[in-house]
Write a structure and sequence with these properties.
- This protein is an all-alpha fold and 67 residues long.
- It is 79% helix and 0% strand.
- The longest helix is centred in the N-terminal third of the chain and has 24 residues, at 3-26.
- The protein starts with a helix and ends with a helix.
Length: 67
C-alpha cells in the first residue's frame, strides 16, 4: 500500500462525508452524489493517480454544477 494513496483516501473520504451530509440536509443531489463518489472511490482504485484524478473531478464537478 502506498502512503500517498492512504493520505488521499482519508482526505477524500473526509471531504466526501462533509459533502454527503451537506447534500442530504439541503436536499441537493449534486453534493450528495459527489460525496458518495468521494467516499467510495478508494475501494475501487489501488493507486494514487486515478484516485486523485477522480477525487479532483468530483470536487470540481460539484463546484461547477452548483445551482
Amino acid at each position: 500500500m502506498d502512503e500517498a494513496w492512504l493520505i488521499l483516501s482519508v482526505l477524500f473520504g473526509a471531504i466526501g462525508l462533509g459533502m454527503l451530509v451537506y447534500g442530504r440536509r439541503q436536499k441537493r443531489m449534486v453534493p450528495f452524489g459527489a460525496g458518495l463518489v468521494l467516499m467510495g472511490a478508494p475501494y475501487f482504485f489501488d493507486s494514487a493517480g486515478p484516485l486523485m484524478f477522480l477525487g479532483l473531478a468530483a470536487i470540481l464537478g460539484c463546484y461547477f454544477f452548483r445551482y
